[in-house]
Write a structure and sequence with these properties.
Layout (H helix, E strand, L loop, with lengths): L9 E6 L5 H12 L2 E4 H14 L10 H4 L8 E6 L4 E6 L2 E2 L1 H4 L2 H11 L2 H18 L4 E5 L2 H5 L5 E6 L2 H14 L6 H17 L12 E5 L5 H16 L2
Parallel strand pairs: 1-6, 1-7, 2-6, 7-8
Antiparallel strand pairs: 3-4, 4-5
Length: about 240
């Protein structure tokens, strides 16, 4: 049974693209009754916003012109009981299906690698952490345990082979009805990995302290969840 001492704990989940961060975060959020924040979805939201503003239609757009659009932006994550999933809202609009499109996926890492944009979203993310960590929080992304929330009690870092991650993502997209080849999915994941690992500001890296590292190349969803839940329980419930 959860005690008052761990009711306000933070669990950070970082890792490679398509390594299963979102699924695990949602499982833990549901199991522990913690609030859920998906920082990757936030970057997808602003990428959708950039597409809507036709920012990618010209070589003349720049970060200075785009930043003002982020000044009054608002993110919400809500549980859809009927669909049994968490949905992302951008300024009160449900954009969950739109932010998982190929168009957004191909461009999100470009915006996420821009320091000015990351700094702007970092401020928003830290405000959300301040608001929700009193009830317990699961937050996922690329730099949560290292930059956004280094104070997290539980830090998880997820990885898997490129082939497995590509195949899982390919199956997800096909299930959603999107027309795309496995090779294109793999190419996109390799491209995003490269941007995440080698960007100058807040690159993807494993937290150095108290980190639970999971390679789920050969783990089923259920097996992975039970392994991680057992490790978390040792720290939250001791």
């Amino acid at each position: 049974m959860m005690t008052n001492t761990n009711k306000n704990q933070i669990i950070s989940i970082d890792g490679y693209s398509s390594s299963g961060k979102s699924l695990l975060a949602k499982q833990l959020s549901n199991k522990l009754k913690y609030y859920y924040i998906n920082t990757g979805a936030m970057y997808r939201c602003i990428t959708l916003l950039a597409i809507r503003q036709k920012m990618f239609n010209s070589d003349l757009w720049n970060v200075t012109n785009f930043i003002p659009y982020l000044n009054n932006i608002h993110f919400t994550f809500k549980w859809n009981k009927q669909m049994n999933k968490i949905e992302t809202f951008l300024n009160n609009e449900n954009v969950q299906d739109q932010i998982t499109s190929i168009q957004v996926t191909e461009k999100v890492s470009v915006l996420a690698s821009i320091p000015e944009i990351r700094k702007k979203l970092n401020i928003i993310q830290k405000k959300l952490i301040y608001i929700y960590n009193k009830k317990g929080l699961v937050i996922e992304g690329r730099d949560i345990g290292t930059t956004i929330c280094p104070q997290a009690k539980i830090k998880i870092f997820m990885k898997g082979s490129t082939e497995i991650r590509s195949f899982r993502r390919y199956k997800e997209l096909k299930k959603e009805g999107q027309i795309i080849s496995y090779d294109k999915v793999k190419h996109n994941i390799l491209y995003r990995d490269n941007l995440d690992l080698y960007r100058k500001y807040s690159p993807l890296q494993k937290p150095t302290k108290n980190c639970i590292e999971i390679d789920n190349t050969y783990l089923s969803i259920d097996k992975q969840f039970h392994i991680i839940l057992k490790l978390i329980n040792k720290q939250l419930y001791k």
